[in-house]
Amino acid sequence: MLAPMTSSRRSRNPSVIFDLDGTLVDSEPNYYEAGRRVLEQYGVPGFSWEEHTRFIGIGTRETLETLRREHGIAAPVDELLAAKNRAYLELAGAHTEAYPEMHRFVDLLHGAGVPLAVASGSSRAAIEAVLARTGLGGVLTTLVSAEEVEHGKPEPDVFLEAARRLGAAPGDCVVVEDAPPGAEAARRAGMACVAVPYVPGTADDPAFASAGLLFPGGQKEFDARRAYEWVTGGN
């Protein structure tokens, strides 16, 4: 197993902002299936997992805007968004689990009194449903959806809004991310980043170069204690 790439942390009073999909929970299969169903419903069959991976880390609206344009779908994006959210919520309600080691990381931080938030490209309804399903909703209560800000990732808006709601300076925040657009958004926000690539093959993406702590092998290499000590300085 490769050792994580690391640099020293600066803040002694950190706040931690989690991405949701692919970071806290393995929801990408549900998002893929929801997207496949909706595209088929609107006359675009055969949407593949490989095509879906292009959009990992990108907000649902931005994803659908791109797919609508590429496939010449006549329906308005709001209609597609509503249909995908319905399909996703049905799938997520049936099966969504938090990554065990990431759940442990949340528990360690919460136990130490570290302020926590979730900032995601998903709808607020999807965020709340997934957190409730995984048992994390009672701990992660500060939530920001990309629908609540002007621009999704890789723009920094969701992370800056999360910091504002936590009452934290951006430079005191650590973002936990699985995708290059999220890592880039953290950099633009002036925040440190713990990167756990959902697709390990993206670990050498230039966007991850700014991560202070990178687990190149993704969730199979992620170490909650190692990440906790890096964020808190061992306190």
TrEMBL record:
<dbReference type="Pfam" id="PF00702">
    <property type="entry name" value="Hydrolase"/>
</dbReference>
<dbReference type="InterPro" id="IPR006439">
    <property type="entry name" value="HAD-SF_hydro_IA"/>
</dbReference>
<dbReference type="InterPro" id="IPR023214">
    <property type="entry name" value="HAD_sf"/>
</dbReference>
<dbReference type="InterPro" id="IPR036412">
    <property type="entry name" value="HAD-like_sf"/>
</dbReference>
<protein>
    <submittedName>
        <fullName>HAD family phosphatase</fullName>
    </submittedName>
</protein>
<dbReference type="InterPro" id="IPR023198">
    <property type="entry name" value="PGP-like_dom2"/>
</dbReference>
